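Limitations
The structure tokens in this dataset are predictions for the assembled complex, not deposited experimental models. Users should treat interface geometry with appropriate caution, especially where small molecules or nucleic acid strands are included. An illustrative entry is reproduced here so readers can see what is and is not provided.
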Amino acid sequence: MMRSIMFLMTGLVVMGLAFWAYRENYRTQEVSRDIKSLQLEIAEARGALAILNAEWAYLNRPDRLRELAELNFDSLGLLPLTGAHYVRVDQLAWPSMPTIFDQIDNPVEVMGVIIEAQAIGGSE
Amino acid sequence: MIRTPLRPLARILSARDKGENPDRIERDNIRVRHEEMQGRARQRAEGRLLVLSVFFLVAFSAVGLRMGSISVSVPQEPRSGGVGDNILAQRADITDRNGNILATNIATYSLYAHPQQMIDPVGAAIRLAEIFPELDGEQLNRHFTGARKFVWVRQKLSPEQRQAVHEIGEPGLLFGPREMRLYPNGALAAHVMGGASFGREGVNSAEVIGVAGVENTFDEMLRDPINNGAPLALSLDMTVQAVAEEVLSGGMQLMNAKGAAGVLMDVHTGEVISLVSLPDFDPNERPHVLTEGDQADSPLFNRAVQGVYELGSTYKLFALAQAMDEGLINPDTMIDTQGPLKWGRFSIRDFHNYGPQLSATEVLVKSSNIGTARIAQMIGAERQKEFLASLGLTVPTPVEMLEASGSRPLLPPNWSELSTMTISYGHGISASPMHLAAAYASVVNGGTRIVPTLLRQDAPQNGPRVVSEEVSRISRDMLRQVVTRGTASFGEVEGYEVGGKTGSADKPRPQGGYYDDKVISTFASIFPASDPQYVLIVTLDEPSIEGLGETRRTAGWTAVPVAAELTRRVAPLLGLRPQIETLPLTAVTLTSN
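Predicted assembly:
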């Protein structure tokens, strides 16, 4: 009795493994087909990238950029970089702060604005 | 199972009655039983043998079938293993120091013909000659109608040309994929790049091999699959190179020179930032080698590396630096400059008469040949030779270009005392501008030997010591004075403290002697002089310019202004901040009365 159960179980296990191996086989084949197409895609993308890089380099060649800078001088005003373009930090002008006199455009307001400004200044 | 008794009572009793031995009956029964058992065992064994033989048969036939199938099938690479990384690029890119592409590949097609498959060979030849004006229609016709089975028509096609060939509709015209070397910047750094051409050619692919420049030197490396297409980073800076070419070509025209060369080198790493030789060429369409005339006039000739010239007074620095390093003189030592200095039949003159004596500094600042010759006499031939060798001025430069290995400096066959004197001011010895750049870098960078290189470096070279730190400092100071109050006064660039030495050497005639009206004028400069970062060599071939009512050919009038303009443009690009002179604050004077 025990023996036949063992035989049955073994048979089932063998069939199960055979089924599993069959499925794995087909899955592997599918994956390798995928990889192949992906590799083709990668190769194509690399090819395209190489072309684009070459094109980028070609469009950015110094001769062309120089000509473009000269052609568009009116709108861009690009000049060769020289030492005069370097300045020290203390040579930079500070951005101008608005003063209360910039806000006054109507003489009638003058009094009020100045008083207001004094009030703000006083509160600080 | 029915068990047969071995001694059945009935038979025993009857046997006893008959007086027979009842044991015989027992033995008889045992024998029968054994026979039955044997029969069963044999049957079982035979069954097992059968199963086993079937199993072996199946196993062996499976192995046999597999072997058969392997032996008849076409071998195949395992597909999933190894990602096809560089299916396309068989040759790595070349970039500048910042990664800008200087050379790359693009896919294109070659055109070949199978005349036996052609329908209208004559018409195809005519149409092809229309598409490609440089092809000879007659010759194509002969090839297509002759006995040949295979004809190369063209190595490279543009997409438009390929379409035009498609439109002929001739089945005998076939395309093969090709990888083509492309230099997207055209003539930029043409001499460094060199160029590439096809090596062994097949229908489906062709080898791309470098024919000159770095393409040739690093041919193996660029094609080595082990590098996995990693680009080759050169020391050149594309922007600086473009500006240098622009300025030098303008300067060359302005100075009516027939050629120009420029070398810009980092004094600490030996990296060549820019290498210009004019006239140049487009490496995409590399011109043919000249079949007649002087190869030095060909645009292919690299004046900066291949051209060995007498570089004139630029050599004076070496004589002074060596004499100071050996303790023979100091910057204030008075040198006898009474001229002309006669030596046998030969007499050495100065451009002007500088009086009886000059200090060593003045000898360099005023560029006195006589003074330098006197200093060289103190040094002597042997040690001068050693010193120039230690600067690399006696052997070809090791810069990584095919052309460099062939540019051996011309040395006097017999290094006599007269040779020593003329060599001290750069006559009787020839070297390339690249040699001079490396030698100047070695002297001014603190005194350690610099070997020029075209590959990007990350660290200073720290080569063997050539001159002491102190001599290097004094040399820089002297070079600075040449610009502030000497022969290179046009070389001043505001904010960049240029120092340098001019050199003008008459060109030698091919038949011997020197031309009176043809010079090579050179300016070897360093900037900023107080802490040099770069050395710039500018050489003009046969310049002449009208200045102050006379024809000027000396470097001070020709090479120096060009070099100054170049420095003005290039130094900011190299990230050098100009030294803005600060006005001294209004001094407070303590007075008491």
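Some entries come with short summary sentences. For this one: Chain A has one domain: 2-80+87-123.
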